[in-house]
């Protein structure tokens, strides 16, 4: 697929040609060739453009753009998913420019379309969306971006590996699935141990945790109140008071 980078008129954003389609400011239209030097028009609405640009390789093209699908109305895209050439062009533009709309991508992912392409995107938000829908988890569990690995853990996949993840938020997601709590109870980060306490695991140990936030979670579950009522931490005392009031 050949890309042409276009030279825009002054103050216009860049546009690129992908195959036989023109992507301009997030819009896609048909490409028609006419014999002339340079034509520059003016945009006449937010979603409809009629512009022409001079190509860097000295070809001259006229771009007649008729954008019939409102960019932010995903429902309109659902009836147009069979045009694979157009959607391949749109996806390539998203990847090339970084100017993408997640609602459009979500529509495609929900239809199980272009999963391989999206799972290999250079944009972590797109890969995270793929993982959120439960696709390509075997690959995305090793993703370099922690948010993507969090999404994988959220699906309950690869927990035996992710329980040892370097990012604490990934480990918190693992704990939410009641996996590896015997390991995570010793985690150096308070937030992870708090999540272990929320799962109701090892309360007899976490009752004596060095962090008042962890002890507060234990108190919130109503465990060890006979000891925690003497806790010197205001955080724990506040939770204890709330628990005491609610039990009356």
Automatic annotation (TrEMBL):
Superkingdom of origin organism: Bacteria
What the entry lists under InterPro entries is as follows: ARM-like, ARM-type_fold
What are the protein's UniProt keywords?
Plasmid
Provenance organism:
Moraxella bovis
- What protein name is recorded for this chain? Uncharacterized protein
């Amino acid at each position: 697929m050949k890309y042409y980078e276009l030279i825009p008129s002054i103050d216009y954003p860049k546009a690129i040609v992908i195959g036989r389609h023109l992507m301009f400011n997030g819009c896609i239209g048909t490409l028609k060739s006419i014999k002339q030097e340079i034509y520059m028009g003016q945009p006449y609405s937010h979603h409809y453009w009629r512009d022409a640009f001079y190509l860097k390789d000295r070809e001259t093209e006229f771009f007649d753009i008729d954008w019939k699908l409102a960019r932010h109305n995903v429902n309109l895209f659902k009836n147009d998913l069979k045009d694979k050439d157009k959607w391949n062009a749109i996806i390539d533009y998203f990847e090339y420019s970084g100017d993408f709309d997640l609602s459009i991508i979500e529509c495609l992912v929900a239809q199980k379309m272009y999963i391989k392409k999206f799972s290999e995107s250079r944009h972590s938000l797109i890969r995270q969306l793929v993982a959120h829908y439960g696709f390509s988890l075997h690959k995305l569990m090793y993703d370099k971006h922690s948010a993507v690995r969090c999404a994988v853990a959220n699906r309950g996949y690869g927990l035996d590996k992710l329980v040892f993840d370097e990012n604490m938020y990934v480990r918190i997601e693992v704990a939410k699935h009641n996996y590896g709590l015997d390991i995570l109870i010793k985690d150096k980060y308070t937030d992870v141990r708090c999540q272990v306490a929320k799962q109701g695991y090892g309360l007899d140990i976490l009752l004596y945790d060095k962090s008042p936030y962890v002890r507060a979670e234990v108190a919130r579950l109503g465990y060890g109140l006979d000891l925690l009522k003497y806790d010197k931490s205001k955080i724990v005392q506040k939770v204890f008071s709330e628990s005491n009031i609610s039990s009356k």
